[in-house]
Amino acid sequence: MPKWIVKKNFEKLPKLRNPVLIEGLPGMGQVGKIAVDFLIDELEPKLLYKIYSHDFWHSVYFNDDGFVELPSVCLYYAKGKKRDLLFLAGDDQPNSPRASYQFSEKILDMAEELGCREVITLGGIGLPSEVKNPQVFGAVTGKDILNKYSSLKIDFRLGKKIEAIVGASGLLLGLARLRNINGMALLTETYGHPSHLGFKEAKGILTHLKKIIGMDIDLSDLERESAEYEKTRLKLKDEEQEISRLKKLRTHFHDTPDVQYIG
Amino acid sequence: MPKWIVKKNFEKLPKLRNPVLIEGLPGMGQVGKIAVDFLIDELEPKLLYKIYSHDFWHSVYFNDDGFVELPSVCLYYAKGKKRDLLFLAGDDQPNSPRASYQFSEKILDMAEELGCREVITLGGIGLPSEVKNPQVFGAVTGKDILNKYSSLKIDFRLGKKIEAIVGASGLLLGLARLRNINGMALLTETYGHPSHLGFKEAKGILTHLKKIIGMDIDLSDLERESAEYEKTRLKLKDEEQEISRLKKLRTHFHDTPDVQYIG
Amino acid sequence: MPKWIVKKNFEKLPKLRNPVLIEGLPGMGQVGKIAVDFLIDELEPKLLYKIYSHDFWHSVYFNDDGFVELPSVCLYYAKGKKRDLLFLAGDDQPNSPRASYQFSEKILDMAEELGCREVITLGGIGLPSEVKNPQVFGAVTGKDILNKYSSLKIDFRLGKKIEAIVGASGLLLGLARLRNINGMALLTETYGHPSHLGFKEAKGILTHLKKIIGMDIDLSDLERESAEYEKTRLKLKDEEQEISRLKKLRTHFHDTPDVQYIG
Amino acid sequence: MPKWIVKKNFEKLPKLRNPVLIEGLPGMGQVGKIAVDFLIDELEPKLLYKIYSHDFWHSVYFNDDGFVELPSVCLYYAKGKKRDLLFLAGDDQPNSPRASYQFSEKILDMAEELGCREVITLGGIGLPSEVKNPQVFGAVTGKDILNKYSSLKIDFRLGKKIEAIVGASGLLLGLARLRNINGMALLTETYGHPSHLGFKEAKGILTHLKKIIGMDIDLSDLERESAEYEKTRLKLKDEEQEISRLKKLRTHFHDTPDVQYIG
Predict the structure, then answer these.
(1) Could you tell me if C91 and C250 are in contact, meaning their C-beta atoms sit under 8 angstroms apart?
(2) How does pLDDT run across A72-95, given as a tens digit for each residue?
(3) The domain that contains A161 carries what CATH number?
(4) Structural domain includes residue B35
(5) Using N-to-C axis directions, what is the helix angle for B168-178 and B97-113, rounded to 10°?
(6) Are A164 and B59 a contacting pair, CB within 8 Å?
(7) Hey, is C246 helix, strand or coil?
(8) Can you list the residues of chain A whose pLDDT is less than 70?
């Protein structure tokens, strides 16, 4: 049995309007994480659950105050325009098949209790080299959600490009499907190098996500970060500087799920 | 404890005539999978169980409609001439010793409940290079089944060629033996490269299996696929095209059990 | 929880005279296995338990009749001169820490129920090259058993040579110690190559073991096998022939515990 | 469920004055282990618990008398000047995420029962080459303990240097934080080579620890050992001698947690 340590940050579970769960955990190019962390900075959603787990990496990280803290994953909610938003963000996700399934079931239990009937997972498709104009691909759990979002300028033939979506970004959709919850993955091409940070790619995903959640979010801060990252990277000669930059983002990289690029 | 999500596709368990279970899960050269998937296309058996498991790969695939779906394994049945047939086919099989044992026990429980007293597993013996005239070898759980099938033109001295049959193709037989269920493996030589698709080898196995199940199955479609595969492969220069071809078959390759070639 | 499938081969547990358990499972140089398998051939002990386990390799092997069978471990007993003998032999041993501990506890439970208060484990110390005159080293759980066997011409300073005894050969002793059961390891230098078969080294161990169990066992058959093995090996140019020879011994090699050579 | 074999070495749990737990298990450069083993030699604390676990390496080591023994971890206490001391030392620590979490929870349960409200973990930051003047860094669980120890000449910006503290040295702090127990890691730069022994670095840590626990401990023995180690190492040409030296210290190295150096 997995051991969860779940800290509730509410007295009464909020009543949400048709909330959509948006997942952005560490993964390929850190695209999903950068995108959702950015949304959390911008929209300042309220923390609902902070989850520690015996299936996360057996380590501690440094939080914003520089204090050591166990890796955790947090579930937030924000009031949206027409519907409310749930965000799943954090430091880690379980690494083995069984633990990854159990984690995803757990998250869906929490989301369902909050009335969630739609899940959108974000991530990257790791390519063997840098991508000039990264394209965003979509994948869905069924016809209903495909029709709902077919007007978006997203190529929904992800299955032509990759074989599988690995980790929480995949399992949350697959397990949602079994619960008759709609699911969609938005995956962008990115550079598969473990130390690459896909700012530009995250921006690409958010451009579509803005339309999906019907909110006008200013992406200029992310653009600036992306430009700065690109500029610095051009100058970098030694890996060490790049790594110290990574650290500032408090992302960690012992694992990069999302997808294996196969064709 | 493993977590199974089993979807029943029947109201009442069908009464079968002395059914034989034929297994063709992903493995070496995908031979077993290609063979059983072909039989399923030809004979259109009825789905009994669709099984998802926390021990399958923590990922989602793309189904025929392009929608994401958890990896699953299915049990089908078809009415045969003298006896009925059970087919075990799917996307994955568990990877660790304990999970593989638990999976195989589970499948045998289901087969036994359907009255099955004979199991035939199909697979490949991975050789280090391409095989011009792949030979089919057999292995059995005891004398009764050896006598039953001794008239087949199969070399039953598999034990001279390999040391062990790995994964479900082996465990289903070993565990069947403990239940006094007869078992036979039909393994063909194949190219052990993880991206090789043993169409030709699958055809070789089916030639024998036709006699075993006493049915006249037209293998010309498989022959065509095999010829096309061979032709294309000759032309291929880059791996990418080959991989995209693999994808069309919706097989996946993160693991190739069946046998380790040892001599 | 581990799953054990234990077949009892007796109606009533035999009453044994102060039995000593002698372990010879697959390991470094297959020394322990060769030694105990030889004793079983010579002394023809009676089978007590045949043990299958979900923690053994998920595969089937070929038994003497060429039929497929799950890997198993067997416990035998033989009447000895002054005291009786228990033999632990088989195809495999669990591979992970937890499973190896559970397995060793299980075996000690069985041995204790049979009145066993002494355990002797056999194995090899893998050296990086062939050993002309392999030396036998001993290690014990305490003073009593050290005094008991100090007259043997064995170097009991194994701790000067290696850092740890890995797998069942080690754990059976360590766990025995916690039960106040005496334990001794007899480890011989051997060639650590995974395909090496330490016939000569097994003979070296049996020379000592004969004295320990006070029985006159003719080792000439083993000598012959050893000489034949050495002769053939000199001729061998390709690995394949060597491997097919290995297969005849029905040993398998996916893992070689016993010891890691460190100095 | 993990299996623990816990030997109590007391009749009644001692009443301790505000004890601080000091952890020094095997890890990077063996710094923590050397430091705490040295304190145990000097202060001769009383053994409280000896812990064996199914999650330690499946092997036996050789104890001071040369007898084989399971790997174990021990909890000791010593009367201190103003407050009492708990020491955690031993041969091993669990290796996988889940087992490492369970182990650390177990240790904290024991410490809490003894009234412990402060945990200090010791370890190394593995650098890619030898370190002339290794620096000690600190990390804490919160403001209170930071203020308490801010007068020490330790750089508390460990988070600028490394990304994570791995294994028990990290988890004991992270899990302590959830129990409102204060925690601090003292990590020193060290050479990350698996066979390096950080005597000098351990001395560096103890210089700070002396002040923390308010005791005057003579480090000259450790200095001598360090000087001898440095001298011998300069002469060493082959790895074997170094390894045999390692063995004398009864440390083992199949794993080196503490931290991954990242920048």
Answers:
(1) yes
(2) 999 999 999 889 999 999 999 998
(3) 3.40.50.10900
(4) yes
(5) 60
(6) yes
(7) helix
(8) 1-2, 234-263
Spatial separation of the C-alpha atoms in residues C93 and B201, rounded to whole Å = 34
Contact of A246 with A197, CB cutoff 8 Å:
yes
What's the rounded Cα separation, in Å, for the pair B53 and B59? 11
Total domain count, chain B:
1
Range of the domain at C165: 13-261
Tell whether D3 is covered by a domain: no
Distance (Å, rounded) from C-alpha C49 to C-alpha C33? 17
Give CA–CA dist B185/B159, Å, rounded: 11
Contact between C58 and B164 using a beta-carbon 8 Å cutoff: no
H or E element, residue C187: strand C182-191
What is the per-residue pLDDT across A220-254, written as a single tens digit (0 to 9) for each?
Answer: 999 999 999 988 776 654 554 545 544 444 333 33
Residue D2 inside a domain? The answer is no
Query: Residue D1 pLDDT more than 60?
Result: no
Contact D98 A247 (CB under 8 A): no
**Residue in C28, C55, C95, C101 to test binding to D, most D beta-carbons within 10 Å:** C101
Q: Which two tokens stand for residue B249?
A: 């078959």
The Cα-based distances of A44 to A23, B16, D104 in angstroms read 16, 61, 34
Which residues are within 8 A (CB) of A115 and not within 5 positions of it... i.e. 6 or more apart? A15, A16, A18, A19
pTM as predicted: 0.90
Closest approach of C2 to chain B, Cα-based (Å): 8
Residues in chain C: 263
Task: Concatenate the DSSP letters of all residues of A2-32 into one string.
Answer: --EEEEE--SSPPP-SS-EEEEE-S-GGGHH
Q: Which residue in the block uniquely carries the two structure tokens 């351990």?
A: D202
Mean pLDDT estimate for chain D:
89
Question: Taking CB atoms and an 8 Å cutoff, what residues of chain D touch A240?
Answer: 263
**Strand stretches in chain D, DSSP E:** 4-8, 20-24, 46-53, 59-62, 68-69, 73-78, 85-90, 118-127, 136-140, 162-166, 182-191, 258-261
Q: Give the closest of C143, C159, C167 to D62, CB-based.
A: C159
